[in-house]
Specification:
With 238 residues, this protein is an alpha+beta fold. The protein contains nine helices and six strands; from the N terminus they run βαββαβαααααααββ.
């Protein structure tokens, strides 16, 4: 059962925030955004408070705002005035995984700042591991169950090529079948070549606009008859 969350906006001493606790960070690093944010904070201060959970008296973990946290941490080395920071503080007593999911969904699954595809997969898989059922997750995230299963598959795999998906114009209907294939390939005698096969497939996503038909053609072509085939096809389907 979800609890009623009581948020208190206050100023928290920076050295009471547990910087090493990154359990709720799902965003990939972005040097350009990080540098831009440091400039904004230096000029305007922190406009959007961090969201913190009070793990114990005078000990806080970050639920949302890691990019802001890291920017402030960097600025503390060169600027005065960052001894404490504005934050929404939520007591951890009786807070469920569903409560934490709701907090993070509001700022990270909606609008212009929404998680990218791979970030979303890691986010959903994390909360599945935290005990939320698939039905509960599908309802809370407002996504169809079949799409949720694809996200969970990708999030569970944590493949080395996962972060690259954040920069490609692919949705989960494309990446879901790739994750399923990759899991099979990684369990084959040719598992050492599985990542290279994926890179070949993703290269087409970088260079051309793919249809679902052409996508499945590449999935089949590069790993046919249970073996990888690394040469490019001569006549890919449109």
């Amino acid at each position: 059962m979800q609890t009623t969350l009581e948020k208190v906006v206050t100023r928290v001493p920076f050295d009471q925030i547990l910087l090493e606790n990154r359990a709720y960070r799902f965003r990939a690093p972005d040097q350009n955004k990080d540098e831009a944010l440091k400039g904004q904070l230096s000029l305007l201060g922190l406009l959007n408070p961090l969201i913190l959970e009070e793990a114990s008296p005078q000990q806080y973990i970050v639920l949302d705002g890691f990019r802001r946290l890291d920017a402030i941490h960097a600025l503390r080395g060169v600027e005065a005035g960052w001894n404490d920071v504005p934050a929404e503080v939520i007591p951890s007593d009786n807070m469920s995984a569903a409560d934490r999911f709701k907090i993070l969904k509001t700022g990270n699954m909606l609008g212009d700042n929404a998680y990218s595809l791979y970030e979303k997969a890691c986010f959903l898989h994390f909360f599945c591991e935290q005990g939320m059922s698939r039905e509960e997750l599908a309802n809370a995230a407002d996504i169809p169950t079949d799409q949720l299963l694809s996200y969970l598959e990708l999030g569970a795999l944590r493949p080395p090529w996962g972060p690259e998906l954040n920069h490609l114009n692919l949705d989960i209907s494309f990446v879901g079948p790739l994750a399923v294939r990759y899991k099979t390939w990684a369990a084959s005698p040719y598992r050492d070549l599985a990542d290279g096969v994926v890179q070949k497939i993703l290269s087409h996503a970088k260079e051309e606009k793919l249809t679902m038909k052409s996508w499945h053609f590449y999935l089949d072509f590069y790993w046919s008859h249970g073996r990888p085939f690394m040469a490019a096809p001569r006549n890919p389907l449109g």
